[in-house]
Amino acid sequence: AAMNVVYTPDDLQSYLSEAVKVSREFPVVISKFIMEAKEIEVDAVAKDGKLVMHVVSEHIENAGVHSGDATIVQPAQDLSDLTLARLEAATAKIADALNVTGPFNIQYIAKDNLIKVIECNLRASRSFPFHSKVVGVDMIEMATKAMLGLPFTPYPNAKQPAPKHCAIKVPQFSFARLQGADPILGVEMASTGEVACFGRDKYEAYLKSLISTGFKMPKGRNVLISVGPYKEKMEMLPTVRRLHELGYKVFGTPGTADFYSEHDIPIVFVDLMDEGAAAAGGATPPAVGSSSDISVSNYLTNNLIDLYICLPSKNRYRRPASYMSRGYVTRRLAVDSQVPLITNVKIAKLFVEAMSRYPDPASLPIAPYDCISSARIVRVPGLVNVSFGLTRASTAADVSARTGQALAGGFTSVCVAHAARGSRGGELALRKITAANARCDFAFFEGLAEGAGAGGEAVAGLEVWAGDLSDMGRLMALFSAAPASLPLIVAGAAAGSGSSQLAALLYLGNLFRRRVHVTQVQCAEDLALIRAAKERHAGAGAGAARVTCDINPMLLFAEPAAANATTAAMWENLDVIDCFATGVDGGSKETDVSALTLVLPLLLTAAHAGRLAVADIVARMYTNPMAILGLASQPDSHVELDLDRHWALLTSRPKPGSVHTLPSTKAIRPRTTTR
């Protein structure tokens, strides 16, 4: 072995003799090994010797376990403020002394708030991607810019609030495929991979990471414990007691069982096998716990143990297969029998505490922090389209295609509006087809008529058209009888056919104290009427009728915008507009792409230009629609927006800001996640 821990003079003589056999030319490096100390990793970036970014993480295991085999948590959980301050100061001094430009990694050892440097590597370490992901800063990109002399922002996350989650990186081993290898941790690396996961705390993160490596979680309640050193027996005492409190049946080998029995913990004595019995593999045991002479080999080979915690006396070195100590044999039996095995005291304590907090790891919730990108990814709720066009003649294929386009555009809920009044039978037929073929949540606007609003939760509003004004007496009666829980939807035909008709409908709404939502506003005159109605409502108090409205956001992007009076009016009166909705979308003639998939990228382009904020988009496409129409929430639906990705509509100029995309030759589509 190239690296070992020496505990005695005899060990030193033995290892030096082996080193001489390998090479007489190169010297042997001897370092003082500090017992019961913590190992700390610092990944950093410097520019001309000045520290511009650093991240601190700590090992769960005590120093003495190779960093590639160690379980690493970030941010550090158990370091004092004094230790963290000393780590930052020491890292800055080393960067200055070496005049570092680029990435570097320092491994520290800490005990009693005193730190020492194990080694400094002037390169990126294996933990750089892990740390970059956790803190949300691409440290490799920063280091590359530092080396190339390109501009960058030091500590770009300094003003961001501390994350409310943490991450743990755990090693993945292949001991089951390495016949004869002793599955214990030491100073030489033995892992063949690693997995990192996020969690609300280190216990959740650890369980997720451990499960991701393929670790077999205990299915039963039988735990076998074998602890060598007295100090570790004492350290494990609260953990073993916790296992008993959690309902596990604890088994112990000689010495271990005696120790915990003396501390009033119920434990079943299990004898260690001799080498002959170990080689034979053991025989079928009698009933569990019926006799003290039942051996560990029988329990392990017959799958009577669900978790084996084996803490050997000294982690000197990984023994070859020819060395048949009883502890080594039991560990190999556990691996070969696929019994979950833990061989480090710190990991044992962490695992048991994690199991006590999350007894059913398979049911751990999927949270937003489980997938984090170094890009500027903003997660928003599934969007709502408050005016979604489907004709009463729509077929099942039409409904599936258009709701699919809505979903691709980030809309997880749509409200089906109609361009004109139709028969009651046509509305009911469309509802039936939509219920069977829609690919997102839906609601309907029902035509205002006698008995309207009795359609249940599927009805979100009652539609009124300009033609209804021809019979004012009937219309007033319908306004008076309409359910107060449903807003009256003044359809686009009224909103676009003359301000006098819209004014009449707004007056009726105010007269009968009915909420009115004007959909698909298309001109400055209508916006002026709506502004006046809103101001009247604000001055009249809570009892007054509320007026809201929406526009098709495509009106905001007419070309050329400076020469288009409607576009200018929409931007000038943006404070009056409550919602964005596509209406009866006929697609773009130039691209044959549905406006449903264009709206969000265009709005994000405006946000990139500073004309809108993402919060404005969310308010008009989720918060306000939900409040106006009283729609059911979708807590498990969301849309991820990539604010750094460039988006282009075919041959048009690339525009920064887009939604998370799937492969497409015509339009960029968002990744809408619904669980």
Summarize it.
The chain is of the alpha/beta class. The chain is built from 20 helices and 24 strands. Strands 14-15-16-17-18-19-20-21 form an 8-stranded parallel beta sheet.
Sum up the structure in keywords.
single chain; 8-stranded parallel β-sheet; 20 helices
Note down, in words, how this protein is organized:
The chain is an alpha/beta fold. Helices cover 34% and strands 21% of the residues. The strands form 4 sheets. The protein has an 8-stranded parallel sheet. The protein has a 7-stranded antiparallel sheet with strand order 5-4-1-2-3-6-7, with helices on both faces. α17 (524-540) links the parallel β19 and β20 (547-551). It is elongated. Residues 274-293, 315-321, 586-592 and 650-675 have low confidence and may be disordered.
* Average pLDDT rating: 83
Low-confidence stretches: 274-293, 315-321, 586-592, 650-675
Q: Could you give a short account of the major beta sheet?
A: 8 strands, parallel
Helicity, in percent?
25-40%
Question: Helices and strands: which structural class?
Answer: alpha/beta
End-to-end CA span = 51 Å
Number of strands: 24
Strand content: 15-25%
Radius of gyration: 34 Å
Strand order of the largest sheet: 14-15-16-17-18-19-20-21
> Overall 3D geometry?
elongated
Count of discrete alpha- or pi-helical segments spanning 4 or more residues: 20
Topology:
Layout: H1 9-22, E1 38-47, E2 50-62, E3 72-74, H2 81-98, E4 102-111, E5 114-121, H3 128-135, H4 139-148, E6 166-172, E7 193-199, H5 202-212, E8 222-227, H6 230-245, E9 249-252, H7 256-262, E10 268-269, H8 275-280, H9 296-301, E11 307-311, H10 326-336, E12 341-342, H11 345-357, E13 377-381, E14 383-389, H12 396-408, E15 411-417, H13 424-437, E16 441-447, E17 459-464, H14 472-481, E18 488-490, H15 492-495, H16 499-511, E19 516-518, H17 524-540, E20 547-551, H18 565-572, E21 579-580, H19 595-608, H20 614-629, E22 637-647, E23 655-659, E24 672-674
Parallel strand pairs: 8-9, 8-11, 9-10, 11-12, 14-15, 15-16, 16-17, 17-18, 18-19, 19-20, 20-21
Antiparallel strand pairs: 1-2, 1-4, 2-3, 3-6, 4-5, 6-7, 13-22, 22-23, 22-24
